[in-house]
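Notebook, student rotation project (T.W.).
Task set for the rotation: take a protein with a known small-molecule partner, predict the structure of the complex, and write up what can be learned from the model alone. Partner molecule chosen: flavin-adenine dinucleotide. Sequence and SMILES entered below by T.W., checked by me.
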Amino acid sequence: MDGKVISELIEIVGTDYVSTRPDVLLTYSASASTGYDSVLPDAVVRPANTEQVAAILKLANRHKIPVVARSGGSSLQGEVIPKKGSIVVELMRLDDIELFEDLRSIKVGAGVTFGMLDKYLNKHNLWLPVYPESSLVCTIVGNVAVNGAGPGSSSEGCIAELVLGLEVVLPDGTIIQTGSEANPDAPGPFLRYAFGPDVTGLFIGSLGSLGIITNVSMKIKRRMKHFHYETYGFDSSEQAEKFLIELKENDVNTVFASIYEGRILNFFMDMLGEEYEIPEHEWPAYTVSMTIGRIRKDQLESDVVIASKICKELEGHVIGISQLPRGEWDDRMRTFARSSYAHGWHWRILYHHQTPSNWHASIKAIWEVMDEYGLLGHTAGFQTGHASYNFYPHLYFDPTDKEEEEKVKKAHVELSKRLFKTGAVPFKLAPYWIEGVEEMKDYLKFIESLKRTLDPNGIMNPGVLGGL
Ligand SMILES: Cc1cc2nc3c(=O)[nH]c(=O)nc-3n(C[C@H](O)[C@H](O)[C@H](O)COP(=O)(O)OP(=O)(O)OC[C@H]3O[C@@H](n4cnc5c(N)ncnc54)[C@H](O)[C@@H]3O)c2cc1C
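Predicted structure of the complex:
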């Protein structure tokens, strides 16, 4: 990279916050995405505020240098891996937290992790009711940029449902505020759908390809204190699927609910059973692992009775092993997913949403591809919000076996094609989906023209949003 550009970056953020040192570049060349190759950027810059971010983007735009926004670096689909010749803009110094108790909202900088925020809100008996299972490192803004979900999503939906507004620096350095705070006289974040179209939504799931989010305003809620952890057994997937739908219809507040096939549960038990003190059990064909949460004890007691009644009406049975859902919920800040790392696997993940009643269609597609390609993997997921189920199947490979890695990459694209045909949808427009999405040409053209309009020089995380 031109030395003049580095000097200008230093002018913007100071010497301590720009680096071209090989060891630093190496650190930023990778992310938690084990299934993607690392790429060295040319420079890493760590701005302290929105104005510095704006100055960096103006500079990058002038010189047509690719920019990759990076927060926690915990994303799993290669989206934060730098481009050749790029500047990584690391946002962890933007760590302000502002609480608006009367508005039941909070505004946080791009460097605030879920862990940091939870510690802060706990003191006020409040919380953000959705946590990704990477909460200690993942930022709220990073999760909004990928449109994530996690424990808590079974009642609240994806993280997007909690967003009230964003401060965004556009590729040309313009700073915009969306939602009610666009009015400088507003008391704070209280309404997302203000001032016309939902501009906030444009940046949710945009993977750093339309601008850099510097602040996000979120809904917060009173902290739940009452939980019940339960497992329920069913003989068929139809019963388990119907169970999730009936719980919603009856307003049972399931904060985290997953359906496990018996064979996948056995697989997980091998990895985690002992650590979570889950007793040996002959698991049924389908197990629903569920945490019900409520603010009030009487509400919780009522929900537990209703859930058990619905289970029996569907000819299921209450298993009574609570350690599994308790582990999933209580450990949501430290994560179940880390077990894969602990066991030394690398993987490709295929995040997608399915309807609960079509849960079996995703399971079928995942197994067919795993069997055809001879791969090991899993089929886990969890219910998310009104009528969707978030799957995060992994296809594992041995990182020293290049042939197997190539096989996993092919299987991954093939699986996305098959899932699309089942009616599933991705929540981030990762490039591999595009190969399988032939019927959506007009939509994709629209996304392309949007990207061109906002980012005519194509500097923002090129190649990541649907390959654009
Ligand atoms: C063990 C483990 C468990 C996980 N569990 C979950 C889970 O339960 N749910 C879930 O949703 N995800 C999960 N993930 C994936 C990951 O944590 C999420 O994708 C997370 O939202 C990424 O946030 P981050 O701050 O690390 O962002 P990064 O990885 O730094 O960036 C992610 C994307 O957002 C863009 N971006 C980052 N910051 C900005 C910004 N300020 N403005 C604009 N764009 C930006 C980047 O360019 C990139 O495209 C898990 C990951 C791990 C390692």
